[in-house]
């Protein structure tokens, strides 16, 4: 069972309703009917209109409850663009710069070493070639790692010490002072807990709890009333289980009654702590498309967003050439894709082997959520589900179907003599 709404303005917005319906049929046949995804919601916004909104599947498979448009999702790393934007608001306020050393706010990090080797339980380090700068946190070139990383030199130390798992934000920062960097700042792209550090920095620089800054400066002005770091009691009925894909099939990973999201968190994660709805996240995307403003609420200036959505990897490199571990990035999906200040940014669609435009920007969450914004096409697309280890192919398929649905080019082709 599903509901499909493709508005009458789809055709005037230069997009084919039939192709978007074809996406939904493909999604159902390839991913829902096969038992991979429990549910899915797709929203396509173009030229100032929601031209397609679709929900299908069960929010709670065991209870046979159908997915609804108002249901609340764990968006995990789709929190990162919001946290990055919060930091850039402080840059606009003149309270910090991208070039500032991180140790200017976290002095105990002034002498972080870089992993150089290990003999038994003894780790040796070397001094980095340069200090970690704020821009390194935003573009994941800081040298930090992640408890969810696999295959790096220091990520096991994050799990052993409960970094980002069992600490609060202050304990998180203190614990990181005793762990070597994976690599020198600026030397590689390594997906990490850097955005959680940004959340800590926002709180310290702004002089208020990070979560309060996000609420007061971003969520409330944008009318994102269902986006928060936990689910209040009056909204639990709209919350759903999160599933995981295992070799044995799909299993419940986080049930609603026992979910940590039902209470305010001890560790307020700027890297992955928010829950949200598709409607709320669309308001965030619309603000980005409009150059930092929505319904009279100016969040940031257009030049700040322009800066955030450019590729900031050293030398104009892409993630494939700079990444040293496989998580969140693979040779096939990250060639031709760089990283800005909180977003992946397409450099060359041909090298990326996917439809799109140079300058479109995106990110996703661990439970299969994904969004991208294409300023050239005046378009935002949001995909929501709740499945850890969701196949990356779903996102690639979505991009293929949406771009194939476009019936008008954004600009007129040149007239040939």
Could you please describe the fold and organization of this structure?
With 417 residues, the chain is of the alpha+beta class. It has helices at 17-32, 80-92, 134-139, 155-160, 169-176, 194-206, 210-222, 278-289, 302-308, 319-322, 331-334, 349-352, 393-405; strands at residues 2-6, 39-46, 49-60, 65-66, 73-74, 114-119, 122-126, 242-246, 249-254, 275-276, 293-294, 297-298, 337-339, 344-346, 361-364, 370-374, 379-384, 387-388. Strands 1, 2, 3, 4, 13, 14, 15, 16 and 17 form a 9-stranded antiparallel β-sheet that branches. The protein has a 3-stranded mixed β-sheet with strand order 9-8-18, with no helix packed on it. Helix 2 (80-92) packs parallel to helix 6.
Write the layout of secondary structure elements.
Elements: E1 2-6, H1 17-32, E2 39-46, E3 49-60, E4 65-66, E5 73-74, H2 80-92, E6 114-119, E7 122-126, H3 134-139, H4 155-160, H5 169-176, H6 194-206, H7 210-222, E8 242-246, E9 249-254, E10 275-276, H8 278-289, E11 293-294, E12 297-298, H9 302-308, H10 319-322, H11 331-334, E13 337-339, E14 344-346, H12 349-352, E15 361-364, E16 370-374, E17 379-384, E18 387-388, H13 393-405
Parallel strand pairs: 8-18
Antiparallel strand pairs: 1-3, 2-3, 2-17, 3-4, 5-10, 6-7, 8-9, 11-12, 13-14, 14-15, 15-16, 16-17
Helix pairs in contact: 1-13, 2-6
Rg value: 21 Å
Question: How many DSSP E strands?
Answer: 18
Segments where pLDDT lies below 50 for 5+ residues? 412-417
Q: Please estimate the helix content.
A: 25-40%
What number is the mean pLDDT?
A: 93
Number of helices: 13
Shape descriptor = globular
Distance between the termini: 54 Å
- Major sheet size, sense and barrel closure: 9 strands, antiparallel
Structural class comes to alpha+beta
Residue share in β-strands: 15-25%
């Amino acid at each position: 069972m599903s509901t499909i709404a493709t508005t009458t303005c789809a055709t005037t917005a230069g997009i084919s309703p039939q192709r978007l319906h074809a996406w939904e049929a493909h999604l159902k046949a390839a991913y829902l009917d096969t038992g991979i995804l429990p549910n899915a919601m797709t929203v396509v916004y173009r030229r100032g209109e929601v031209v397609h909104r679709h929900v299908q599947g069960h929010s709670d498979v065991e209870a046979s409850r159908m997915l609804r448009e108002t249901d609340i999702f764990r968006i995990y790393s789709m929190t990162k663009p919001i946290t990055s934007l919060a930091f850039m608001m402080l840059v606009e306020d003149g309270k910090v710069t991208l070039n500032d050393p991180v140790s200017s706010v976290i002095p105990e990090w002034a002498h972080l070493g870089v992993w150089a080797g290990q003999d038994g339980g003894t780790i040796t380090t070397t001094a980095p070639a340069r200090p970690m700068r704020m821009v390194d946190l935003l573009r994941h070139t800081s040298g930090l790692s992640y408890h969810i990383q696999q295959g790096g030199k220091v990520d096991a130390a994050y799990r052993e010490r409960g970094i980002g798992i069992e600490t609060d934000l202050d304990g998180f920062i203190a614990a990181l002072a005793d762990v070597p960097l994976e690599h020198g700042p600026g030397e590689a792209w390594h997906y990490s807990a850097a955005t959680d550090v940004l959340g800590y920095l926002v709180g310290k620089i702004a002089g208020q709890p990070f979560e309060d800054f996000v609420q007061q400066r971003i969520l409330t002005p944008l009318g994102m009333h269902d986006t928060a770091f936990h689910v209040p009691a009056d909204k639990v009925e709209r919350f759903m289980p999160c599933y995981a894909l295992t070799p044995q099939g799909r299993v419940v990973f986080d049930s609603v009654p026992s979910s940590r999201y039902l209470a305010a968190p001890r560790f307020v994660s700027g890297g992955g702590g928010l829950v949200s709805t598709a409607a709320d996240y669309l308001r965030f995307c619309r603000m980005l498309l409009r150059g930092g403003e929505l319904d009279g609420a100016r969040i940031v200036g257009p030049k700040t967003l322009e800066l955030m959505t450019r590729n900031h990897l050293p030398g104009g490199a892409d993630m494939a050439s700079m990444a040293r571990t496989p998580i969140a990035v693979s040779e096939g999906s990250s060639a031709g894709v760089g990283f800005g200040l909180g977003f992946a940014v397409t450099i060359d669609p041909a090298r990326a082997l996917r439809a799109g435009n140079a300058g479109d920007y995106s990110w996703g969450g661990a439970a299969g959520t994904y969004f991208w914004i294409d300023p050239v096409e005046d378009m935002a697309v949001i995909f929501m589900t709740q499945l850890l280890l969701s196949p990356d192919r779903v996102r690639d398929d979505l991009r293929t179907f949406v771009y194939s649905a476009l019936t008008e080019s954004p600009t007129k082709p040149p007239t040939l003599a």
